[in-house]
Amino acid sequence: MSVLHLRRVDGLLTVQDMGRPGHLASGLSRGGAMDRLALIEAAALLGANAPLAAIEMAGAGGIFETDQPMRIALTGAPMTATLDDAPLRWHASHLILPGQSLRIGGVQAGSYGYLTPAGGMATEEWLGSRSAHLSIGILAPLSPCNLPVGDDPEPDRPSQLIEPVRRFNGGTIRVIDGPQTGLFGDEVLAGFHETTFIRSDRGNRQGVRFDAERNFTSDLAAGLASDLIGPGDLQMTGDGVPFVLMAECQTIGGYPRIGTVIPADLPIAAQAAPGAKLRFQRLPLDEADRLWQTETRQIQTAAAACRPLVRDPALMPDLLAYQLIGGVTAGRELEDQ
Amino acid sequence: MSRETLQDTEPRVLWAGMDGVLLRFALTPEPAAMAAAQRLAADLEDRTPDGVIEIAPGLVSVLLRFDPAKTARTVLAEELLTRAQRIRQRAQDIPDPARRWTIPVAFGEEYGPQLDEVAQAVGCRPEDAIRQICDADLRVLVIGFAPGQPYIGLLPEEWNLPRQSGLTPEVPAGAIVVAVRQIVMFGAASATGWRQVGRAAFRSFRPRQDTPMPLKAGDAIRFEQAPGPEIEALEQAGDLSGGAKLKVLR
After folding, report:
1. pTM, whole model, 2 decimals?
2. Which of A139, A219, A252, A290 to mutate to test the interface with B (most CBs of B within 10 A)?
3. CA within 20 to 30 Å of A150's CA: A336, B107, B116, B168, which one?
């Protein structure tokens, strides 16, 4: 067990893993990371075969230190990051040494950045998950403190860089029909899938609102029995404005749902910052099935997008301290070991 | 998918995301559809199809989540439809409960400020309204809105009261509120469009206990009138069970 010192908090920071599925009957939604792909990419960068508990940073990060060498991954929404004033690559793993100060600043695109230690966060669990579930007061947001971190099974593994799945600036989100798609008229459905929406400034871990020029209502909305709802569902308010339900959504709801965002594209909706433009593209279920992957397979796919992190000379303030003439050394100094 | 109408009463199987299949008995909260959903959920708990990882009862539907590596949604769809049609053909009464909770409640006055208004709408005296609530054979219909929080029903037909047009800004945790023949027992302080007739010291969400969400859909609920000071004493003692008694029936 080692310790990650959280010296300063600038954004909304919480510990998040893949959540606690299996409690729908008790009215508790899965919760967990808003951008689940960020935990998949972190696992791939760190060489883990399952997602690890991470620190989710909404908007901005903070200042972190450690008292033992610690491998970490920085994934999700890119944020400015420096290690003792030297810039650090995002979408990469790094080694942090005792005495060094890791500063994670504001988000450059998207909404949620993630810091994942290679041993995973070892903070308190509730119902089998370390995820904070803010809407019900489970495991509060982080304030400066010392956080327990699990042991790194592979401390000598070299740092890696990943080509992330593009998801930080809106775009096209694929949607499958759901149990209530049939409650909407063909004209409303066609219009919905042709419309460009703007991510509203109303959004949190429960759901995110998307605005457009027109509204999309169902004549059958009044009088509907409440039904089971879940992350990814596109719920239309009484005014016909869509909310994409997120990790901490309720488990039953009365507003009709026009469809469900496929899991592969839900991170696009989660990461879209206010003002980002999005469209919802209807996808046949059999095509969605072909895109579906287990978590293990997703980590393998992400691992294939990883390569060794070679420090960029342009980003090295101490360049003159290096021996740059070949043959004199083994030439490994440019790798961020 | 064909356009539906609110009058559809045939059980329908619907795809719910990548790993879900939903069996819906009706679109509206018909009592017969609610009873059928409870019967189907109980049947699935007793004999769970292979590959199912979660059974979630709704008000008039049941959601199965499955492991796509272990089964296919078409297999589950066929199984669900067969069971649902069999249930639909049989008597429409609600299933026998597996457990019964007896929960003390203080009614009226500051514990249920809208009791008189509700009794008037139902067409009886306040004491008769209390007796009807305590005599009713109630079940947890569904849990939702907040973890562990029950929707309980059904009260007699005269209790088919609409929600208020405005919201009550806040009712306390444990508030017993009524509308549309149902009772909600709030797990935490909340705004609501339902009318408050009583208050229990029972807490449906207890994050620090081994069973944080003690109620289950299908549980029988019997409310028992208690003096207000007794409910307050239970609350002050921090006894989250609120004096409730649980009896396992089968």
Report:
1. 0.92
2. A252
3. A336
